[in-house]
Amino acid sequence: MPPHVYIEDIANYTGQTVTIKGWLYNKRSSGKIRFLMVRDGTGIIQAVGSFADLGEEQIAAIDTLNQESSLIITGSVRADDRAPGGFELMLNNVQPVSLSLDEYPITPKEHGTAFLMDHRHLWIRSKRQVAILRIRHAIIKAVRDFFDERGFTLFDPPIFTANACEGTSTLFHTDYFGEDAYLSQSGQLYGEAGAMALGKIYTFGPTFRAEKSKTRRHLTEFWMIEPEVAYLDLEGAMKLAEDMVEFVVKRVLATRSKELQDIERDTKILEKIVTPFPRITYTEAIGILKQSDHEIEWGDDIGGDEETTISNQFDRPVIVHHFPSAIKAFYMKRDKNDDRLALGFDMLASEGKGEIIGGGQREDDRVVLVERINEHKLPVEAFGWFLDLRKYGSVPHAGYGLGLERLVGWICDLPHVRETIPFPRMMSRLKP
Ligand code: 4AD
Ligand code: MG
Predict the structure, then answer these.
(1) Ligand closest to the CA atom of residue 400
(2) How far apart are CA 209 and CA 165, in angstroms?
(3) Which of 68, 173, 353, 367 is deepest in the core (most CB within 10 A)?
(4) Per-residue pLDDT tens digits of the chain, which is 432 residues long
């Protein structure tokens, strides 16, 4: 059998006979010619079969193939500008593998979101979903390369935890052999231990929030990347975050241009994502919001709609920093010049997409940290090990958390995070 190749590599085989193993995406016929659109996960190619080349029996076999039947085809590769993708396969053999036993539920016509979500296990075969998932993978690879090339060590935090990181209202509780355990909301606290051991680390894993909010930006299970660096301050963390975002966007533009085209992403907007990103203080953000007729006062949290208003003012992501400490997590260090402020920042994506990163400098004083834990009414006993980090050679340190699905949603310009992950988990969605 001629060599098995993947459709994305087809340009290297012009004029040669190759085998492609995949599924039937679509087909049409015109007189004695059959046109098969075949997908293999890396692309879609048009395969052309004639009576003369295939014979009656094979043409009859083709005519039994329905949408998403699996098949193995061989033929010679021909460059043709008019063909979708620029190449065609001139068939000399078609071997059905398994016919679809029923009419495939997802047809080229429009389907409602609920229907598609119920069929997510099949929906991911669609061209657009394949493109998004391939971009997601490129983003993951780029994030990892960014940190790996800068000497960070990947550090895997636990998922079962005994303590809250981001407030107790969004904890998923579970019974751990008679003890209370929670699914991790963030790897940060363990990341801090890692930074004291290894200098600079990043975590990359699933995180969980029992979010009762049904928004376009909330999942109950999502993937977070959390760098944590010893001897780093707020300024250093903001710089690291913007360098990372610029690096990732550049890489996606360079390696996933076909997929960006498949989803009709306006790449001119992405080409503008260069550092330095604009920075504003929380106080300035409140000023912008008041001018845009939001009912908000200094001290209020900035919600999703407010984030959209702020990020719509800029053609690049914007960093908002120095939030009121009262609305931020217990671990944030306060500004020594103004005790009302925390040394924290959020990065809001452009195009109104909202927060993609949250982070800042950590409280490194043991006594102050105990006070904060008590103020937040968290059980201080559960934080013994975390306080130890401030007992033995405490140093200033900082980091942040990047929400992978929010980043994918922004880079792909998707209206909702549900298409950014293979099987989204949301308040009202546990299946498939
Ligand atoms: O802002 P968050 O809650 O920050 C933390 O968890 C810190 N402990 C991170 C750190 O400093 N190491 O979450 C960080 C990011 C958000 O900016 C957002 O991108 C994403 O995680 N995120 C969510 N993504 C999807 N669904 C949700 N429910 C999310 N909650 C947070
Ligand atoms: Mg946040």
Answers:
(1) 1
(2) 11
(3) 353
(4) 899 999 999 999 999 999 999 999 999 999 999 999 999 999 999 999 999 999 999 999 999 999 999 999 999 999 999 988 899 999 999 999 999 999 999 987 889 999 999 999 999 999 999 999 999 999 999 999 999 999 999 999 999 999 888 888 899 999 999 999 999 999 999 999 999 999 999 999 999 999 888 889 999 999 999 999 999 999 999 999 999 999 999 999 999 999 999 999 999 999 999 999 999 999 999 999 999 999 999 999 999 999 999 999 999 999 999 999 999 999 999 999 999 999 999 999 999 999 999 999 999 999 999 999 999 999 999 999 999 999 999 999 999 999 999 999 999 999 999 999 999 999 999 999
Residue 349 contacts residue 311 (beta carbons within 8 Å): yes
Question: Contact 181/161 with Cβ under 8 angstroms?
Answer: yes
CA 230 to chain centre: 26
* Ligand 2 center from residue 257 Cα (angstroms): 30
8 Å CB contact between 415 and 216: yes
- Give the chain's length: 432
Task: Measure the CA–CA gap between 147 and 229, rounded to whole angstroms.
Answer: 11
Give me 154's structure tokens.
């990947």
34: CB partners within 8 A, 6+ apart: 27, 28, 48, 49, 50, 54, 59, 62, 63
- Which residues, 6+ apart, have CB-to-CB distance to 254 below 8 Å? none
- What's the pTM value of the predicted model, to 2 decimals? 0.97
Distance (Å, whole) CA 39 – CA 48: 14
Element (H, E) at 33: strand 33-39
Helix axis angle, 234-255 relative to 127-149, nearest 10°?
Answer: 130
Query: What are the pocket residues of ligand 1 if the criterion is a CB atom closer than 6 Å to any ligand atom?
Result: 165-166, 186, 188, 209, 211, 218-219, 222, 224, 226, 355-359, 399-401, 403, 405-406
Ion ligand 2: residues, CB within 5 A, are 358
Q: Which SS3 state, helix, strand or coil, does residue 351 take?
A: coil
Q: To 5 degrees, how large is the angle CA 139–CA 144–CA 149?
A: 125
- Whether omega for the bond prior to residue 3 falls within 30 degrees of 0, making it cis, is no
Query: Residues 5, 19: contact at Cβ < 8 Å?
Result: yes
